[in-house]
Specification:
Helices cover 83% and strands 0% of the residues. It starts with a helix and ends with a helix. It has one domain: Four Helix Bundle (Hemerythrin (Met), subunit A). By secondary structure, it is mostly helical. It contains seven helices and no strands.
Length: 183
């Protein structure tokens, strides 16, 4: 339980309130965006360390996606509320996350199974982990003319991939539920 990769995941979780403080308490969306980029950038660190140090654990398998989902959910909801993110963009992310989350819960409850992560899903998450902080940085005073186009290009690309993978996950859930039905 007490492993280096799990410590990285816990630190990522502890940075989420700091992100909110920078955004809301300090009214500094650019600093919040840079911190969010660091939180997202270290997403691969815990998994890499777990594999490299042979410290893969059930706690880590829970903490890593928890840190990912909480960071993204917090950034999207706060970005929507603070008018950093366009409402339709934020809403599209929230709807997709909710639908995939419901599917994953249904799958776990009925079959004890879980959704297998797909490469395209990782790529979509990577793009969104770049786009969302870029929107935050663009909302500040630091080169908004550079960061806003980057945010939109990576954001639209990531969102499109997110929905494609979401459809694949829906098919995976349907197939697993059908296979688990008696008879």
């Amino acid at each position: 339980m007490l492993t280096v990769p799990n410590l990285v995941s816990v630190i990522r979780l502890l940075m989420i309130p700091v992100f909110l403080w920078l955004l809301i308490g300090r009214d500094n969306p650019a600093a919040a965006g840079w911190l969010l980029l660091a939180i997202g950038g270290t997403d691969w660190v815990d998994g890499y360390l777990a594999r490299r140090m042979n410290q893969i654990s059930e706690v880590g398998k829970f903490l890593d996606p928890l840190a990912d989902r909480l960071a993204v959910a917090t950034a999207v909801i706060a970005g929507w509320a603070m008018e950093v993110l366009n409402p339709w963009f934020a809403g599209a992310i929230i709807v997709r996350e909710a639908l995939v989350g419901i599917g994953a819960l249904l799958l776990a409850a009925r079959t004890k199974g879980k959704l297998e992560v797909r490469y395209l899903g990782k790529l979509a998450t990577f793009l969104l982990y770049g786009a969302i902080p870029a929107f935050y940085v663009a909302a500040g005073d630091f080169l908004p003319g550079l960061f806003r186009p980057i945010a939109w290009i990576t954001g639209i690309s990531g969102l499109a991939m997110y929905y494609v993978v979401g459809a694949w996950y829906a098919l995976d859930v349907k197939e697993a539920l059908t296979a688990s039905e008696p008879g």
